[in-house]
TrEMBL record:
PANTHER family reported in the protein's UniProt record: RUVB-RELATED REPTIN AND PONTIN
Compartments, as annotated in UniProt: Nucleus
EC number(s) from the headed UniProt entry: 3.6.4.12
Keywords linked to the UniProt accession: ATP-binding, Chromatin regulator, DNA damage, DNA repair, Helicase, Hydrolase, Nucleotide-binding, Nucleus, Transcription, Transcription regulation
Protein name per UniProt: RuvB-like helicase
Family of this protein: Belongs to the RuvB family.
Catalytic activity line of the entry: ATP + H2O = ADP + phosphate + H(+)
InterPro entries noted in UniProt: NA-bd_OB-fold, P-loop_NTPase, RuvB-like, RuvB-like_C, RuvBL1/2_DNA/RNA_bd_dom, TIP49_P-loop
Species of origin: Timema podura
Highest taxon above the source species: Eukaryota
């Protein structure tokens, strides 16, 4: 048999606008290091964000919100991302875009509420009484249909469960047989059955079968230790939204206390440093005079505008037969792409020429 390797069709991720940001870049005392973790300057805001991270970690942030306030391109989104990175992936982070809120189908308040609930994470720790082990046998026992007629029904299921310590045979209610089928449980799988609810969870295939020929991706788990019948601690990270999906949506809100972090516009040399960092992250070479012109544009328009000129400028450079972006390339692309302020100005000057 011939086996060919298949190339993944997953899209390669484009370099997003904030990929150089790795965290808040604070020292152990919470003081901002002038250039660290991909961030430059904006020290007070970073330190304030560090306090928020500490508040969250010490569980004192409940019922509070923060507002990042400042002109465009001053790093509000970048620092929001840095906060998320400092908190790790167990704390839900759900960015949303303004346009998501506008829909004829769903109310704005509902969209916002759902996003709030997606952003609130819970760690549920439960001690459950379970039967756990590798399935050694699985036999549905049928009886004549009690109502009469010809069909047969499952009266109960006999299941054998094995652990490193021993084996147990259980007689189960037919309703559990349905959940066993739903989870596609077969002999050789490691499962647990919750004693109270009868819920079945398939954990994977027992690793004694790890060498069997299996085309499907399969997760192998070790034979459970201890008794078949035992108390098991189950930890789950979920969001309120997950719970809403699982149950009916609970009602009722809470007052939120707002904390405001102020963002100050960057000085020219900080912009230049950030732009240099962006160029490095995007693998773009740029000469000093071009960088300096970009920084000028940053001062006149926004940092975001000049950062966005980097990629087109590198393409222009290539077209002009250069590896490194020169001043002319920056000049050329800046005349092609307008920043938001200038385009708004043109729009208002020529108001009468547009459709209303
Ligand atoms: N202090 C900073 N250090 C490094 N990069 C920054 C900093 N502030 C902003 N940036 C980068 O500049 C660009 C614009 O910032 P952004 O966070 O989108 O601004 P805002 O959300 O305040 O409008 C982004 O690419 C961002 O990653
Ligand atoms: Mg932003």
């Amino acid at each position: 048999m011939k086996i060919e390797e298949v190339k993944s069709t997953a899209k390669t991720q484009r370099i997003s606008a904030h990929s150089h940001v790795k965290g808040l870049g604070l020292d152990e005392n919470g003081i901002a290091i002038s250039m660290a973790a991909g961030l430059v300057g904006q020290k007070e805001a970073r330190e304030a964000a560090g306090i928020v991270v500490d508040l969250i970690k010490s569980k004192k942030m409940a019922g509070r919100a923060i507002l990042l306030a400042g002109p465009p391109g001053t790093g509000k989104t970048a620092i929001a991302l840095a906060i998320a990175q400092e908190l790790g992936n167990k704390v839900p982070f759900c960015p949303m875009v303004g346009s998501e809120v506008y829909s004829t189908e769903i109310k704005k308040t509902e969209v916002l509420m759902e996003n709030f609930r997606r952003a609130i994470g819970l760690r549920i720790k439960e001690t459950k009484e379970v039967y756990e082990g590798e399935v050694t046998e699985l036999t549905p026992v049928e009886t004549e249909n009690p109502v009469g007629g010809y069909g047969k029904t499952v009266s109960h299921v006999i299941i054998g469960l094995k652990t490193a310590k021993g084996t147990k045979q259980l007689k189960l209610d037919p309703s559990i047989y349905e959940s066993l089928q739903k989870e596609k449980v077969e002999t050789g799988d490691v499962i647990y059955i919750e004693a109270n609810s009868g819920a079945v969870k398939r954990q994977g295939r027992s690793d004694t079968y790890a060498t069997e020929f299996d085309l499907e991706a399969e997760e192998y788990v070790p034979l459970p230790k201890g008794d078949v019948h035992k108390k098991k601690e189950v930890i789950q990270d979920v969001t309120l939204h997950d719970l809403d999906i699982a149950n009916a949506r609970p009602q009722g809100g809470q007052d939120i206390l707002l904390m405001i972090i102020r963002f100050i516009p960057y000085k020219r040399d900080q912009m230049e440093q950030i732009l240099r960092l962006r160029a490095q992250t995007e693998g773009i070479q740029i000469d000093e005079s071009a960088l300096s012109l970009l920084a000028d544009f940053g001062v006149r328009a926004t940092l975001r505008y000049s950062a966005q000129l980097l990629t087109p400028a590198s393409l222009t450079a290539k077209v002009n037969g250069r590896v490194t972006i020169a001043r002319e390339d920056v000049q050329e692309v800046s005349s092609l792409f307008l920043d938001a302020k200038s385009s708004a100005k043109i729009l208002s000057l020529n108001e009468d020429k547009y459709m209303k």
